[in-house]
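*** Query protein ***
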Amino acid sequence: MARTVGRNVAGPLLFLNLVMWLIVLGFASWCLNRFINGTTHHPSMGGNGATSFFLTFTILAAVLGIASKFAGGNHLRAWRSDSLAAAASSAIIAWAVTALAFGLACKHINIGGWRGWRLRVVEGLMIVLGFTELLYILLLHAGMYSSSYGPGYRDDEYGGGVGAPGIEQKGTHGGVPEAVHV
């Protein structure tokens, strides 16, 4: 039970983030399409001077966020140090772009003007995703501090090298330990 604490917490958070990213991608794509077509007079649209930048970075963050959740799902399935590296690195990149979109969402709100409900939903979800994505990254890296939260970065419980279960050291050959299968 102790070895799955991080897995039990990161799993639901990963799923929640994936659902929010899909909603953000759908709404931001719709808003960007309306903005490009010049139909900002639609009751659900509106916008201001930051809208094009905000929507561009939001769509980029959403695509990276969805891709990182696939790597995170693979890590939750395997729960090994090598899958942790892929999940954590993609999540950090997704969070970095999310932080940019988060800042643009704050600027978009600060400029003001009339904004439709879809734009306000995208703004709100980007602010929430900025924090939940950071929490997800912290949960992925919690295994570095304690193995009860996830696979550690120096976890050597698998593999075929020295220190793996079922392998003893026989002696050294040229300064390199020789392994003998037991």
